[in-house]
Amino acid sequence: MALSREEALTREIMDYDAQMQDVKVQYEPVFRDIIDYVITHQPFVNENTSKGQVRGQLQFDGTPRSALNISTNGIYGLMVSPSSPWFELAVADEDLNQLSEVKVWLQDTQGRMLQAFQRSNYYSEMKNYIRDGLSIGTACKFSEEDIGTGKIFFTTLPIKEFKIALNRYRVVDRLHREFEMTARQLKEKFGEEALTDEMKKALDDDNASRRLAKFKILHSVFPRKDSDDRKISKLNKPWASVYLALDDSRKNDRRGKVIQESGFDEFPYSTWRFDKETDEVYGRSPAWHVLPEIIGAHVLEKDLLKAAELSVNPPMNVHVNQKGKFKRIPAAINWFQDQEEKADAMDLRINYPVGIEQQDRKRQIINEAYFVDFFLLIASRDTTMTATEVIELQGEKIGILSPILNSLSSEALDQDVNRVFSIEFNAGRLLPPPEVLSGVQIDIIYNGPLAQAQRRTFETQGTLKSLETARTILELFPQTAQNVNWDTTLVDILQGGGFPEKNIIPPEIVAQTREQIAAEQQEQVDAEKREIDSKSLKNTALADKATGGKITEAAAAGAA
To answer: pLDDT for 446-456, tens place per residue?
Structure first.
């Protein structure tokens, strides 16, 4: 018997989900170790833990969590700080960028989008998102618009909630999110008519515990195969969105029922993988790379705590006659008659300094993995220097951080900005673009201190190093300077260094100014020549008069 469209869709999603879980389960032991030894804000993988449960009971050394927090705060504050416009819009064609109507629209759109980010909960969620990427290795957040308020809401997902799959370009293009909601919450989101019979019963149940019972939901988002951009409907958008009510009552036969099918114009989940191996689906993080040192630091710190306690409160050798009489409280007086009855502490031969040296080495490795020194240097900078200037002094660190910044920009920030643009534009909160921009790609330029320093370092470093290398040749052979277009070289250095564009004079005005200066200089030379000639004629006339016209006669004779 042929399956209905809904049954076929459900089976396809559930089959995909099983395959995606088979992949994810290979990574879960590391996820669990990171949750145990690095972070405390995530629930345990594949465990139903109680809210408010104490976590981090295996953590004895604070270095991993401290390093994670410093790196998180550093990247957040230097990439997406809400206190500054951290991105701007532009087009690749510089001629278009110079058009007044294009400039006005780009600036207006940027301002409206930044306001949309401010109205949303983006900045609070982004901090959790970055922390997940730096710890678990794969971070994920979902974005949706609340139509009633016109606000965009972002939700950062714990690793236990989602699974991902990649397309042939190794880009995440399918995501399954499994979560729980009460019947009332499901009614508010999907409407009562979409609920299963069991959910409807729970809505009106007199028993509070059954009324507040949670139902498992699976959200599947994937590229729609039969999308037709000529048709406008939720079921024809390029990204399919399907919500299933899950039924786990049958052992080894997990089933689902469609409660909503719709779509998105763009992928609504933003996933960031800190570091990607070629043949792996989920990302790796600094915690992955130094996990042995992290676990070792906790184990060693636990041993050092025991050693310290034994050093302060060691076992005692006490004579049998002092049984029940020996006191270990502060300021206690123990009486004895025989020297042999004197109590003494056991010599445990604890080599505490060796343990401290080992621990310091592990802490250094952990801090280096999280670039702690780099971010602390920026935080403690001289007040006369900007954060960008301090970062540029650490040019070699920028090179190391570049892959991180590039992956964060391409996998997360680009998607966030594009998603907000789409939501705001479709809601009519953005002005329509000028016709001249029809079909033109809008580029995103990031302006946080880290992004600026990275851009300036790579744009100007080669030029400045080349000039430094060529300085000796230019000093010995000044004529070789004619091989360099100094106008464009200076402009490139100024632009790469963040010099205000408005303070750079356009080339055509520079050319006009130079022509005017050259004309004025030539006029000055001509005036001086005329003055010299006039004085020469006057002096000649006086001399001729003084000689009785002999100079004139001589000149005439010479001409003849």
So the answer is: 988 888 777 77
CA distance readout (Å), 182 to 143, 161, 194, 212 = 21, 17, 14, 6
What is the average pLDDT across 250-271?
88
Q: Which of 200, 209, 145, 203 is nearest to 429 (CA)?
A: 145
pTM (predicted TM-score): 0.79
Mapped onto helix, strand or coil, the DSSP state of residue 59 is coil
Structural domain range at position 515 = 507-559
Split into its structural domains, the chain has a count of 1
Tell me whether residue 555 is in a domain: yes
- pLDDT, tens digit (0-9, with 9 covering 90-100), for 291-330: 999 999 999 999 888 888 888 888 888 888 888 888 888 8
Side-chain half-sphere CA neighbours of 33 within 13 A: 17
Residue 375: pLDDT over 60: yes
Contacts for 293 with CB less than 8 Å, ≥ 6 apart: 362, 365, 366
Residue 26 maps to a domain? no
Residue 178's DSSP bridge partners are 218
Tell me, yes or no, whether 368 lies in a domain: no
Residue 525 lies in a domain: yes
Q: Residue 232 in contact with residue 257, Cβ under 8 Å? A: no
The one-character DSSP state at 114 is H
Grouping H, G, I as helix, E, B as strand and the rest as coil, residue 165 is: strand
